[in-house]
Amino acid sequence: MFGGQNMQQMMKQAKKMQQQMADEQAAIAKTDYIGHAPSDVVLATFNGDRELKDLQINEEIVDPEDVEGLSDMVIVAVNDALKQIEQDQQKRLGQFAPKGMF
């Protein structure tokens, strides 16, 4: 059989890569990513599945007359955490897929 040995080797390598990718995905899902607003006035904690687990707001920035400012700080912290997840996924899983897939 022509190439039978090479095909088996390729299949083993593919299976190994699939397992490595699954392991990395599981590690990402278990990781907490904490997004920070300036001076840590708002902290947003997500897991790797992009589920918000915790939102901490420093009471010193709570001003009933500036709800918009508080909202902006929450958005900054949330976006920071989501960016961290994206970067970690690219770093961990990018080796297994074409650029920009994760």
From TrEMBL:
Identify the Pfam families for this entry. Answer: YbaB_DNA_bd
- Cell location: Cytoplasm, Nucleoid
Per the record, the coiled-coil ranges are none
GO molecular function terms listed in the Swiss-Prot or TrEMBL record = DNA binding
Task: Identify the InterPro entries for this entry.
Answer: YbaB-like_sf, YbaB/EbfC
Q: Which GO terms describe its cellular component?
A: bacterial nucleoid; cytosol
Top-level lineage group: Bacteria
Q: Indicate yes or no for the key word Hydrolase.
A: no
List keywords of the entry alphabetically: Cytoplasm, DNA-binding
- What's the family? Belongs to the YbaB/EbfC family.
Entry-linked PANTHER family:
NUCLEOID-ASSOCIATED PROTEIN YBAB
HAMAP family xrefs:
DNA_YbaB_EbfC
| Subunit structure, interactors included | Homodimer.
Protein task: Binds to DNA and alters its conformation. May be involved in regulation of gene expression, nucleoid organization and DNA protection.
> What is the recorded name of this protein?
Nucleoid-associated protein HMPREF0877_0473
